[in-house]
Specification:
Layout (H helix, E strand, L loop, with lengths): L2 E7 L3 E2 L2 E2 L6 E7 L3 E12 L8 E9 L16 E2 L4 E7 L4 E9 L4 E11 L15 E12 L11 E5 L6 E7 L3 E13 L6 E6 L10 E6 L4 E6 L5 E9 L7 E11 L6 H13 L21 H6 L3 E3 L1 E7 L2 E6 L4 E4 L5 E7 L8 E8 L10 E8 L20 E6 L4 E7 L4 E10 L12 E10 L9 E8 L2 E8 L17 H13 L4 H10 L3 H20 L12 H24 L3 H21 L5 H25 L7 H25 L5 H19 L12 H4 L19
Parallel strand pairs: 3-10, 7-28, 20-24
Antiparallel strand pairs: 1-11, 2-11, 4-10, 5-9, 5-11, 6-8, 6-10, 12-19, 13-18, 14-17, 14-19, 15-16, 15-18, 21-22, 22-30, 23-30, 24-29, 25-28, 25-30, 26-27, 26-29, 31-32
Helix pairs in contact: 3-5, 3-10, 4-5, 4-10, 5-6, 6-7, 6-8, 9-10
Length: 732
């Protein structure tokens, strides 16, 4: 046999602490057919700075779809199917880099996904530039060993083969046709080269993670041994590996035989009507949309035809709505007939390769008037790759290599719902059958009507009122995740364990908005001291900070007067410009120079905020430059007057020192104390402290200016005005 090794690599990604699915870094690989060995090379590394500590990285694996993970231990939505992912942990302790290998023998062909993340996020809000986070990098590479000339086992034809040695197992494959109800594998004439009874182990199927249903058959001696597989995967290659358990130097000769039991579907009359209907709607064009329906239609209602077929297939139209958004529509109406003689089958096509990043939602509703037997139950099974063709009370909803999802409806409980999170890429089948408690003979003539609603959505229920559905991308692959707010959690933001009450949400909104009213004293002081430009800036800041925080709330207490991004930009701009004009006002420079610096600084601040809105130097840069100007001006004034400036000790004790203290406390709260949990009151304290510090730091008015004399400036009475007209003399 000829083996070919192939290598696939993807660029490294910077890991994040986990708070929602968007923090997990996804890697998407495609394993080719006839792969007999898959090896993952996982490389993790961290920075060398003092901020880098020991860290545990969790890596999840899944075949067919992104792994469904739950690192935070939150609740999933009701009726959602959750199967734990296969994961390993990689620890970065004293070593800067860690290399780990993961081997998978006879892996399933198709899409494989790896998701990696750091532990739960601490929830601290870090200001960009104040702290340097440690970079943790992760890279996944894939090695595959593929057999180029894997022998094909033809159904019904015995095929002799030889296992050379235990170190070199034999690999063969057989193609499973459509409508295969069962497969029988038989191994016979097993004998070693030493003419002794042999012992071999046969592995049927491929390994899939997180769960693998690979079937094992051990044969000892020359007697025939066989294995029956019910509902093997349709239209797929099935790998078979034969291993010798004998001595190392002895070869083993075996003879293998595979045979299939084919299930004959019902009448195709509805399918032919479906084709003609689509061709008439599309103007007779071949290959029109919807013409890929299953090649079996609704069964006729006569009992003889139902007895002669083992399934009744209903044509389903796949309607693509948007990215990871599909609606399935039954051609013969939303209701399907279900009887006890053979299962009713619906095909849900999810094999485009771009459907596994959403949620498959299935609703069943029983028409109670359609069932003549009160105790009858309609059982259903949703499975991938192949349908379950025999539904009864004792048989589990499982196929040859996978476990399906069972459902049931009855007159007592007429509605059932199923949510499959990140369904694997494949053909999905819905099987329905009517069961009676006293046996199938009791309801041989009965028929139930079940309404089926099925669709694929990026996020179930659009993440609810306390979540936001985000479309994520890894290269060309798109998938969706929910980002929760207001303390809600879970896959679809349905876990209210840590949720904020409506009262808490209202309190947070009131604190963050009304705390901006503390700028009113600063505005009043500025107006009283004739600093009208500064007062205008403070008014601008108070207005936009109030309505930005009213729009920024995560819960239901939200009010947006304009676009969120515009409000955020205006809030950040007003905050930095307020600090800029306050420090320049304290510098006591000439008016013409002060106003030039006001305008020039505001333009530069607006430009820097557009480049990086959350950078710490967008605030610290103007502040430090304004402080340099202020200190230079104060030194100049002190040298000119031959004493300290400002000269009054009362100015220092009662105004400057309290204002500077409040400003430092505000910066400390803003930079080091804010978290996601305490944001609404720590940020409100920041508003109060900054506004109060501005009121203390504004310098007194110029001595030559008199206080506002409203009674002299705004009058409603007659006044005797002095006549300053000059006398004109005529020269004669």
């Amino acid at each position: 046999s000829l083996y070919v090794s192939e290598y696939f690599s993807q660029s490294a990604q910077k890991l994040s602490f986990y708070s929602w699915y968007g923090n997990a870094k996804l890697f998407h690989f495609h394993v080719p057919e006839d792969t007999v060995l898959l090896r993952w090379l996982l490389q993790a590394s961290r920075g060398k700075g003092p901020e880098c500590t020991s860290m545990e990285i969790t890596v999840h694996f899944r075949h067919g779809a992104p792994p469904v993970i739950n690192p935070l231990g939150t609740r999933f939505p009701a009726n959602a199917t959750v199967r734990p992912s296969y994961n390993i942990s990689i620890t970065l302790s004293s070593a800067v880099q860690n290399t780990t290998f993961v081997n998978v023998t006879t892996p399933a062909a198709g899409d494989w996904f790896i998701a990696a993340h750091l532990p739960e996020a601490a929830g601290r809000i870090e200001v960009k530039g104040f702290s340097t986070p440690c970079p943790y990098m992760f890279q996944a590479d894939m090695f595959v060993l593929r057999l180029t000339d894997m022998p094909v086992l033809e159904p019904g034809v015995p095929m002799p083969h030889t296992v050379v040695s235990p170190a070199k197992p034999l690999h063969v494959k057989v193609f499973v046709p459509k409508h295969a109800a069962g497969m029988r594998f038989q191994l016979s004439s097993c004998i070693t080269s030493e003419q002794r009874a042999c012992t071999v182990r046969v592995l049927l199927g491929s390994i899939t993670l997180p769960q693998s249903f690979q079937r094992v058959l051990t044969c000892t001696g020359s007697i025939n041994c066989s294995l029956v597989l019910e509902s093997p995967p349709w239209e797929k290659w099935l790998q078979i590996m034969v291993e010798s358990l004998g001595s190392a130097n002895a070869s083993v000769s075996v003879e293998m035989l595979a045979s299939f039991t084919v299930c004959r579907p019902g009448s195709t009359s509805s399918f032919l009507n479906f084709i003609s209907l689509n061709q008439s709607q599309a103007g007779g064009r071949p290959g029109a949309a919807g013409s890929s329906a299953p090649a079996a239609g609704e069964a006729p209602h006569n009992t003889s035809s139902q007895r002669s077929s083992c399934l009744q297939s209903q044509p389903v139209v796949r309607e693509d709505l948007d990215v990871v958004s599909v609606r399935y529509r039954l051609l013969n109406g939303p209701s399907v007939p279900v009887n006890s003689l053979s299962p009713t089958l619906l095909l849900l096509n999810l094999n485009t390769g771009m459907d596994s990043g959403g949620s498959l939602v299935l609703n069943l509703l029983l028409n109670k008037t359609s069932v003549s037997l009160a105790n009858a139950t309609v059982v259903a099974c949703v499975s991938a790759a192949s349908p379950v063709l025999s539904l009864n009370a004792t048989r589990h909803c499982s196929t040859a290599f996978s476990q399906g999802y069972p459902l049931s409806v009855s007159t007592a409980s007429a509605e059932a719902m199923l949510i499959v999170l990140y369904p694997q890429t494949d053909d999905w089948f819905l099987s329905l059958q009517l069961l009676c408690p006293k046996g199938q003979g009791e309801c041989s003539t009965a028929e139930a009507k079940v309404t089926v609603f099925s669709y694929l959505t990026p996020c179930f229920n659009d993440c609810g009122p306390y979540g936001q559905c985000s479309l994520l991308r890894r290269h060309g692959y798109l998938y969706a995740g929910c980002s929760c707010k207001a303390g809600w959690g879970g896959w679809s933001c349905t876990d209210d364990t840590k949720a904020q009450s409506v009262g808490t949400q209202n309190l947070a909104t009131l604190l963050l908005t009304l705390s901006n009213l503390m700028f009113l004293p600063a505005i009043a002081v500025a107006v009283y001291r004739y600093y009208l430009v500064e007062a205008s800036v403070y008014t601008y800041t108070m207005f936009f900070s109030t309505f930005y925080h009213a729009c920024d709330q995560p819960g239901v207490a939200v009010m947006c007067i304009m676009d969120y991004d515009t409000l955020q930009y205006c809030d950040f701009l007003g905050s930095v410009v307020s600090i800029w004009v306050t420090i320049l006002c304290m510098a006591r420079v000439k008016k013409i120079l002060k106003y030039v610096l006001f305008i020039l600084g505001t333009l530069l601040i607006a430009m820097s905020l557009q480049l990086d809105r959350r950078g710490v130097w967008n605030m610290m840069g103007p502040c430090l430059f304004a402080l340099v100007i202020m200190i230079t001006a104060w030194v100049h004034h002190g040298a000119k007057r031959k004493h300290c400036y400002p000269s009054s000790w009362k100015r220092w004790v009662f105004y400057l020192l309290p204002g500077i203290t409040l400003a430092f406390i505000a910066i400390s709260v803003y930079a080091f104390m804010e978290t996601n949990e305490n944001y609404y009151y720590t940020h409100s304290i920041w508003h109060v402290l900054v506004a109060c510090s501005v009121a203390f730091l504004l310098p007194p008015r110029d001595k030559h200016k008199k206080p506002w004399a409203w009674s002299q400036k705004l009058t409603c009475r007659y006044q005797i005005c002095q006549n300053d007209r000059e006398e004109l003399y005529a020269v004669t």
